[in-house]
Design goal:
The protein is an alpha/beta fold. It is built from 16 helices and 13 strands. Strand 6, helix 6 and strand 7 form a beta-alpha-beta unit. The chain starts with a strand and ends with a helix.
Length: 377
Amino acid sequence: MSMHISLFIPVLTYGGAEKVVITIANGLAEKGHRVDLVLVKREGALIGRVSPRVNLVDLGASKTFYSIFKLRHYLHSEQPDIFVSGLDNANIVASIAMRMSKVRTKHIITFHTNLKQSYQHPRTKLHYLYPSVMRRLFKKADGYVAVSECVAKNAASFLGLQREKVNVIYNPVIDEKIKELANEPVKHPWLEDKSLFTIVSAGRLFEAKDYPMLLHAFKKVLTSAPQARLIILGDGKKKIKDEMESIISTEKMDHAIDIHGFVDNPYAFIHRADLFVLSSKWEGFGNVLVEALYVNTPVVSTDCECGPAEILNAGEFGTLVKVGDSNEMAEAIQSHLNKKQLVEGEALSRHLNQMENKFVVDKYETVIMERVGEMKG
């Protein structure tokens, strides 16, 4: 049965949720469904990754909240079978537009982050209102999908939903192109020098990633292992980068740390690294851990909510350390310095299959068909 499926996200800047939405849109279109990818504004570095089979809809609004009436008009005129939204602001706007449009379209809300963690310390006065607004609006949705068991549990608790109403579908992280990209040449002197032990970390420079803790841990490592090097991939907040550079300068680690910035192909760096490290205070899933495992790079990660413990299967496929503990992080890194701990085999392959693109797209299609069946039944 071919369906008209609409997916809504603000923009297609470089981020985990945005990549997930594109993969799902492309996959569903490939399976013969009519797919609209609705954007608040047609911008972002990832637009080029959208398949020609997917219809890009530009609402032309300057901000997500300003798109409500245009989104209502779209829903009223197009009346897709299913409307899937993702990210907090987009979920709120989508819920309002759905109620205003009074269409029979089924609405599925996706959760990519730990809601309880995100709103534990509201950043603005408006954020204080979000929990009550979400609880009121989101209960009207027809279905829910979370990117991990932890995110599902927290979303259900936060919104007052029954846990079994939230489907868990891991992010679509793995496709055949990753290993091709991992084997592409990369020019970085530390990755070419076999006498060095090079660590790579990747992610946006913002508070949740806790890069300052990683830098303090790396200082301890460097004291006993002067051959250690750290490359950090990603852009983000200037305030965070300034703090990181201050720590590096104060601790005299300029020679051993490279805040490299954004790269189009992080897989080539991760594949050639001796170790991949994630130092986050919290995650929604942790796509980059899956990518590191897939290209056979050993992993050390904080045991944060949500994602790492599920991805690493409670430590079976990588080392988990306490959140915010630079001593424990340093010890874990040093254990890999002494002996490279490769993780591979049939158990890992079976585990990673759950994050393979086709597997995930099929699961989304199943959830969507169940909702459409309810509408047409």
